[in-house]
Design brief:
Blueprint (H helix, E strand, L loop, with lengths): L6 E2 L5 H4 L2 E5 L3 H11 L5 E3 L3 E5 L7 H16 L15
Antiparallel strand pairs: 1-2, 2-4, 3-4
Length: 92
């Protein structure tokens, strides 16, 4: 896999996008698990490899977004996701 980095994946049409941002990564499912279990970030996983984040501007601050992205970076760079199985749970 090498040094795969998350890629942004959202609809660029502001009328269709809403407040969600999706990041794609080959290990998206296991990254999702590590974020929930270790980093207190609750994303939504979508097949095949999407981490979806809901950013509600009314109650999500810039600092919270910054901290969340920093936690995602740490999970990916430190490969914290390696300890989680590839098998999917029925609910994430």
């Amino acid at each position: 896999m090498g040094r795969a980095r998350p890629r942004r994946r959202e609809d660029r049409s502001i009328e269709r996008r809403g407040s969600h941002v999706s990041l794609r990564h080959p290990e998206g499912y296991r990254i999702n698990r590590a974020l929930i279990e270790e980093m207190n970030v609750i994303p939504d996983f979508r097949e095949p490899d999407n981490l979806r984040l809901g950013l509600a501007p009314l109650y999500t601050s810039f600092g919270e977004v910054w901290d969340g992205v920093e936690r995602i970076r740490r999970v990916v760079e430190e490969r914290r996701f390696d300890k989680y199985p590839k098998e999917r749970l029925t609910v994430t």
